[in-house]
Design brief:
Radius of gyration: 18 Å
Strand content: 15-25%
Order of helices and strands: HEHEEEHEEEEEEHEEEHHHH
Number of helices: 8
Shape: elongated
Structural class: alpha+beta
Largest sheet: 8 strands, antiparallel
């Protein structure tokens, strides 16, 4: 209980520290690819003087402006938010084979091969991760694996390397469909085999992990994508 209280207080402090961060948004993947960003403050229409805040709750990121109308747009309609130079994608309208992802809020993403996006999200049915998260996360803040983005004045949430085995990656490389849904592709064995067709050594490195779950986890996928130069070298720490 004490650890959970500590974590909540820490996130509150980080949220307050984040108020000075510049936040901007885009409505679609096409806007993201074209670099069409708009300041989040413009959504409030002057109805709120509160700086945009980033909050972490229920294992997903949320953005609050202090204005109900703006917050509703951020929750339901916005595709992505750039907060302090870090990317967060709204999972609400993402679909993998027409199936929603496990979370409906924002999750961290990194650029993939320039104008594509690699989205990292956890699997809700990973009971071990969920049970351990609340008890363990407080201890991570006093060690190096977790980086809550305070370097360079950024208040961004970065996924802990030790818990990347509970995350999976999705690729976004196309815009919304006629239903307003954005299709995503799971970065799984099939994806990696196609990606590494001409790199047998790297493919062998990927397949070296016998457990399918761990092999397809972000802890195995991201370092390989980093080595291939497809995602930033600082995607994980």
């Amino acid at each position: 209980m004490k650890k959970n209280v500590f974590v909540s207080l820490l996130f509150c402090c980080l949220s307050l520290m984040a108020q000075a961060q510049v936040a901007k948004y885009c409505m679609t993947y096409a806007d993201f690819a074209a670099g069409r960003w708009t300041p989040v403050d413009s959504l409030t229409g002057g109805r709120s003087q509160q700086a945009v805040q980033m909050k972490f709750a229920d294992n997903e990121v949320k953005f609050k402006t202090g204005d109900k109308e703006a917050d509703k747009i951020l929750k339901k309609d916005v595709f992505a938010v750039d907060y302090g130079g870090h990317l967060y994608v709204n999972c609400r309208n993402l679909r993998n084979n027409d199936i929603p992802l496990d979370i409906s809020g924002y999750t961290q993403a990194v650029r993939y091969d320039k104008n594509k996006l690699c989205v990292m999200t956890y699997k809700i049915n990973d009971a071990a991760f969920l049970l351990g998260f609340g008890a363990d996360v407080a201890s991570f803040f006093v060690s190096t694996p977790v980086r809550l983005g305070l370097d360079a004045g950024s208040a961004a949430l970065w996924i802990c390397r030790d818990h990347l085995n509970s995350y999976v990656c999705y690729l976004i490389d196309s815009d919304t469909d006629s239903k307003g849904r954005t299709p995503v592709t799971r970065i799984n064995d099939k994806f990696m085999e196609q990606l590494l067709t001409d790199d047998t050594a790297m493919l062998a490195k990927y397949n070296a992990i016998s457990s399918k779950k761990q092999r397809q986890s972000a802890s195995n996928v991201l370092p390989i994508l980093m080595e291939k130069g497809l995602v930033p070298s600082n995607a994980i720490n």
